[in-house]
């Protein structure tokens, strides 16, 4: 598997003292679970689940190359980003329509000037939604779409917004994303932060994402990923 160079993200306006950053999109093609074998990565009432605790392969892409890596560490999916201005992600190679995605995201190292979170309705490296929080307490919902040069932020004023609900620094955050019809919602640690409306994508894969916006490797561990119907 290799990565594909993608488009740039707009500068991230995150409040006083923040420098707008240009993120260069990098993506990995995920491996889909074989269609002719039973899918063990689900459970009654659950569309997809992975706690990364055993030998079960749920299809996540793993890699290690300059600037980013994804792999199993500490019974979690660990994403690292060491080149400022690049975002890295992994997908399990599935296809869903309306979903609720829940996961634990742990920042274990690196600068707080970062962004990490969940992806839904992933079509390809040019078309998907991404829900991000940062190590210094900001959040955003963004959209990539073919034909555009940059990400479109769907949150207020097209920017990241601050929230006290986000645990900052080296800490864990419980993320819950809803992609239902044209409504896209982000909840952190049980507190609803934002709901935006966008009708562009109706189906696609899920994903985990991480980036750093300054020198130093950001390392994020994702655990207990669960996808359910609304």
Characterization of this structure:
The protein contains no helices and 18 strands. It is mainly β and 230 residues long. Strands 1, 2, 7, 9, 10, 11, 12, 13 and 17 form a nine-stranded mixed beta sheet that branches. Strands 3, 4, 5, 6, 8, 14, 15, 16 and 18 form a nine-stranded antiparallel beta sheet that branches. The chain starts with a strand and ends with a strand. A hairpin with a 2-residue loop joins strand 4 (63-65) and strand 5. It has one domain: Sandwich (Jelly Rolls), CATH 2.60.120.560.
Which terms would index this structure?
230 residues; nine-stranded mixed sheet; mainly beta; single chain; 18 strands; disordered N terminus; Jelly Rolls; nine-stranded antiparallel sheet
């Amino acid at each position: 598997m290799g990565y594909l160079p993608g488009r740039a993200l707009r500068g991230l306006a995150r409040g006083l003292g923040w420098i707008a950053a240009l993120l260069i999109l990098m993506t990995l093609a995920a491996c889909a679970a074989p269609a002719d074998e039973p899918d063990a990565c689900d459970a009654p009432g659950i569309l997809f689940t992975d706690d990364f605790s055993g030998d079960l392969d749920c299809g996540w892409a793993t890699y290690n190359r300059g600037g980013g890596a994804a792999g199993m560490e500490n019974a979690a999916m660990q994403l690292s980003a060491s080149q400022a201005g690049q975002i890295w992600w992994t997908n399990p190679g599935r296809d869903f329509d309306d979903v609720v995605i829940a996961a634990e995201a742990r920042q274990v190292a690196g600068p707080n000037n970062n962004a990490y979170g969940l992806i839904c309705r992933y079509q390809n490296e040019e078309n998907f939604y991404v829900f991000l929080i940062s190590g210094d307490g900001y959040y955003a919902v963004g959209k990539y779409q073919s034909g555009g040069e940059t990400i479109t932020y769907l949150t207020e004023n097209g920017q990241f917004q601050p929230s006290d609900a986000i645990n900052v620094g080296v800490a864990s955050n419980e993320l819950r994303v809803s992609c239902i019809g044209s409504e896209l919602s982000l909840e952190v640690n049980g507190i609803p932060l934002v709901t935006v409306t966008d009708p562009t994508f109706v189906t696609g894969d899920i994903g985990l994402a991480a980036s750093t916006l300054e020198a130093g490797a950001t390392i994020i561990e994702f655990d207990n990923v669960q996808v359910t119907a609304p």
